[in-house]
């Protein structure tokens, strides 16, 4: 039962929709109690109700907070720790995109992307790790991107943020792996979600993706569930600080 997550609690940030929601669904299917998160309370409640119908209300919780708000993160993580007995798995998934040529990007937009895509993972990661370190166990999964390794026009802040998130994964590993925590990252390729809907609808971009991806298709959010279960379970107990690209092969071809 290496992949069994029964009895574990997993907090997935940004799980009211998209990739985070599918990862939470996958962790629950493997037996975990899941805590969904997002900022929009109405969307979050709807997501909780949908997954509770599948796995039961006791195993599907929701906590609305902004991952960049230090006080809100502290209060929410403390409340989740108390009500569940402890967070065993943290998935730092919440993230945003901003598309604009780099020369036109305002400092405000730059900071917004860096804040949510890197600083949020640091804040939630640091707060949850304090309790994990005290228990001597825990799994942290940071959701990176192919832009962790590769650049592309018009997404400079995101590319910088996702590269930083890869190295944050390494920094967390350097400091916390000796205390029984495993911190790894998943780097999704182009996945069809609300974030990428405009790209899917753009015939030129869509055909570029299909030509550029050896698997010849967009990823689905469900493609991320298996890798997340692996990193959340005892199957990955000696895997530390790695980035797993789940991208249909995009990053291995030119
Ligand atoms: P979506 O835009 O579909 O969903 C984003 C989620 O993050 C929502 O639940 C949203 O909550 C939440 N969120 C945004 N800001 C905050 C915040 N400050 N605090 C808490 N929650 C927040 O995104 P995707 O599912 O497409 O992407 C998820 C992750 O995967 C991101 O890190 C993204 O960079 C990464 N990724 C996505 C790829 C893709 O092709 N889609 C490819 C590679 C990586 P709310 O509903 O309240 O706004």
From TrEMBL:
Q: Which UniProt keywords apply?
A: Oxidoreductase
The reply to whether Oxidoreductase figures as a keyword in the UniProt entry is: yes
* Family statement: Belongs to the short-chain dehydrogenases/reductases (SDR) family.
One MF term in GO for this entry?
oxidoreductase activity
Name it. Answer: SDR family oxidoreductase
Q: List residues traversing the bilayer.
A: none
Check the record and name the Pfam families matching this protein: adh_short_C2 (PF13561)
